[in-house]
Design a protein that fits this description.
Layout (H helix, E strand, L loop, with lengths): L21 H9 L11 H5 L10 H9 L3 H6 L2 H4 L5 H5 L6 H14 L7 H17 L4 H12 L6 H9 L13 H6 L12
Length: 196
Amino acid sequence: METNINSSPKGLITVNDMDIHFADEVVIHSGANLNKCYHCMTCACGCPFSRATDFAPNSVIRLVQLGLKKEALGCSTIWICVGCHTCSIQCPMGIDMAAIMDTLRHIAIKEGAAVAEPDILNFHRDVLHSIKHYGRTHKLEVMLRYKARKWEWFSDLAVGIKMLAKRKLHLRASKVESIDVVRKFFQPKKIRVAHE
């Protein structure tokens, strides 16, 4: 049996797998000091979506602390997190987990990492598209775009009809008065260079 000397047994972390600057990058961009985490798992106990994730919030922090960038950016947890701040509120150290998850999503997109939950990313894009065009979300359009992409036209039809009947969904999109102000948020940021 031939053995690859560069591979490690499953579950072991080698120095080659680690990005020693990854934790610093996440701290700088998120503004959250993840090094305060002592892994009490209070965040996991409070997270309403913890059963749907592959890692508990504190485990994602551990991946970042260990410099396991590929694993952290490739996990489902960063995409399933809805930013409800339940974990942050319950954290005895006051770590802003939602900011960390948001930062990890941004880094994953920027670096072209494999997105573990592409449907969630596409849903976010549909919501942003709606906000860009109307200044607010047009829920019916967002849902129809999502359903069209998934080819699941009738899976939530009963819920959709109930929402229409209760006037929770509107057939026509309403726009904000100052749509230009909202659209400015979607323009690329202009960077000024100081001349010497």
